[in-house]
Amino acid sequence: MKIAVIGLGYIGLPTAAVLASRQIEVIGVDVNKYTVDTINKGKIHIAEPGLGMLVHAAVNTGHLRATMKPEKADVYMVAVPTPFWGDHEPDLSFIESAVKSIAPVLTKGNLVILESTSPVNTTEKVVEWMQEIRPDLSFPEFAGDGSNVDISVAHCPERVLPGHIINELVENDRIIGGITTACAERARNIYKTFVRGDCVITDSRTAELSKIVENSFRDVNIAFANELSLVCDKLDIDVWGLIKLANRHPRVNILQPGPGVGGHCVAVDPWFVVHSAPEEAKLIRTARLVNDEKPKFVLRKILEEVSKSGKDISKLTISCLGIAFKANIDDLRESPAQEIALEVTKMGFLNCYIVEPNIEKLPNNFPVKAILSKAVEAIEKSDIIILLVDHYEFEILDTSLLLGKHLIDTRGIFA
Prior knowledge:
Shape: globular
């Protein structure tokens, strides 16, 4: 069996590596030449525990190789981004491009699996895009028989946590949504080669909605915590202590607030639900707006600390601790911490230090005046410290370094 994984990012590459570790021949496809060249050297271009060892072993044994163009295979897994554009409209252009790139090399008996998180009906659009290019092949119809088609199509959304992807790819349950039941059963056979969790069969529409609903549930709960932090700030109450007390109730489990919500899933997927049912998804929309507004609150708190200092902002130095979207990873996608840090560089501070222990250089969108620095050095030189991400390196800092500094702790690790 030969499997082609289209898209070698945070989901595609770990999936390709895990499949290859099962002695399956895997072709990784990506449009980025640097990504392809790096993988073919047995190295990785993203930070994820355990991934480097898997990729190195798979490349050395010949079970994994990368290319920029799709080749003939038995199974095609599409794992490309699904961002949004404009007024939170789903952008399916990456999926469409990936699907149209594999259509010319499809042969009878192939299985195409969409892993990308998608709005409802996207998997059916995948069928339409392939049909346009390959009218010589037969494709399944939603809820049809599907047993005598040339190409089987299914949706199997990833459900992993950055920093734990390798383990969760294997241990987590998977939802297998087929255009037809027969398609789902074929896809389940592929995932059972490496998944220890249950592989539950459903239809593609339900599978699509299940993933974005999971992340919408998390977003709503985070929004409650973030809104609570605003209430506590107005009432001059310690939100961290309040949550700790409230959570002593046996049926209460309030999450921890932060500077916003980031990442390609929780910060994006709820908009797919809103797009699908705008009149019905009122709570989900409100939660998204609450979380999207939180960075503005943090920026206002910075200006309050500037005022308390009694100095002009041009005489002050600030440090932003963390710009990843969550702790202990290098992923900056949809990161509220990065958004805040970028705005800080425009506020007129004398110096602006950025501390992000998981990257080697700042993204190109940061101005030259922003200085990537180590935590201790940045704190010692700064008047204002803003903790944006609860990285392990910050949790073990000597808190005596903070004495005499203006501190804004958005994660509560110094509380």
